Amino acid sequence: MTPHHFRVGYLERPMNEAFLTRAAEFPALDIRRIGLDQPEAAIAAALAECHGYYAWAARHELPLPWHVTPALLARLPRLLVVASYGAGYDTIDVDACTAAGVAVVNQAGGNAEGVAEHALGMMLLLLKRVPEAQAAMRAGTVRDRNALMGRELAGRTVGLVGLGHVGTRMAALLNVFGCRVLAVDPALDAATIAARGATKVEMPVLLASSDIVSLHCPLTAQTRGMIGAEAIGRMRPGAFLVTTARGFILDEAALLAALREGRLGGAGLDVWEEEPPPASHPLLAHPAVLASPHTAGVTAESRARVASMAAEAFAAAVHDLPPRLVNPEVTDRFLARRRALLDVAA
Question: What DSSP designation does 227 have?
């Protein structure tokens, strides 16, 4: 096998045509579409020939047999790199990949603008009580506009849970409105957080001090269920909660209880435990909830950007470490396996 045949497989469709366009600029890449309209054994056989797997990021969209699990990895002896379609990698078992010597890459930062704009839009609409006003107009129950009096974002305190790519862009947008921006991010020190436009605080302070709490952290063992009844109980009465991060970070039942009891002013939800949520989901029926089906990062610009980034990551993996490596501890094993499989010098 020569370095001019780094085969990358994707299932059914790429994130965006930009993936194919950008990949075509790298002679070393051999991109293969693997249709889902064939037996599982045939799909597995096609993937087994690949050094790279371009994997869907949404757990409810990717069929379970093709989630990157120990069972799938055992069927893919040539696999060197798994690249997620987006910033998230819920469909990829990172620890299993590390054990197998497979590098995991995401496209963090590629959709930061789209997600941050979406979160900001949710904040503005919630403060102006647009979901409630629209429901009242449709029901024909609007009698007094003052009953729908909203609030302005300018000068409010906003707490950001996570200050990575999206959180940093969020802080920049909020600073334009003159907001006081607080942030919780255990990976960053106070000076770094200040340079990104926020003030570092601990979670209890953020919850108690913020008019709006916005989630921008990854789903990990530490963040799963982090915003539950206890955390919500620490929030300011009448505060708003916005999440464009990942489902399961927020306890949906606890949020619903807080909204029904009037302890929170409203919520903007783009991510869910089940995606898309069923039409009967009680949060969808609540007048103070603004909902979207995990579309914050689904913009033409974001999709083209993250698709191009994925192609570039696969190309880099032919002779170097791929960028945005989720499991850097795999480095030595990855390099050794790449030498063996591609006969490429380190």
Answer: B
Q: With beta carbons less than 8 A apart as the criterion, state whether 265 and 238 touch.
A: yes
**Cα 20 to Cα 246: distance, rounded to the nearest angstrom:** 28
Calpha distance 191→337 (Å, rounded): 39
Question: Is pLDDT above 60 for 303?
Answer: yes
Predicted local distance difference test score (pLDDT) of residue 222: 93
- Give the pLDDT confidence score for residue 344 in this predicted structure: 61
Cα–Cα distance for residue pair 53/225, rounded to 1 Å: 30
Q: How far apart are CA 77 and CA 44, in angstroms?
A: 11
Bond into 323 cis (ω within 30)? no
Tell me if 290 sits within 8 A of 49, measured CB to CB: no
* Exposure of 219 in the CB half-sphere (CA atoms within 13 A): 25
What is the per-residue pLDDT for 5? 84
Order across the sheet with 157-161: list the strands.
Answer: 199-200, 180-184, 157-161, 212-215, 239-243, 264-269, 289-291
Active-site residue list: 246, 275, 294
CA distance 22 to 196: 31
pTM, two decimal places = 0.89
Compute the C-alpha angle 154/156/162, nearest 5°.
Answer: 115
pLDDT, average across residues 142-160 = 96
Q: pLDDT tens for residues 11-22?
A: 999 989 999 999
From residue 6, give the alpha-carbon distance in Å to each of 163, 285, 310, 318, 342. Answer: 35, 49, 14, 7, 8
Nearest Cα residue to 240 out of 216, 259, 218, 223: 259
**Residue 267's closest CA among 298, 289, 251, 249?**
289
Mean pLDDT throughout 261-276? 96
- Would you say 33 and 54 are in contact if contact means Cβ atoms under 8 Å apart? no
DSSP 278: P
Kindly give, in sequence order, each residue whose CB lies less than 8 Å from that of residue 115, ignoring residues fewer than 6 positions away: 166, 169, 216, 244, 296, 297, 302
Predicted local distance difference test score (pLDDT) of residue 2: 45
Pull the structure tokens for residue 19. 């993936």
Mean pLDDT of the 112-116 span: 97
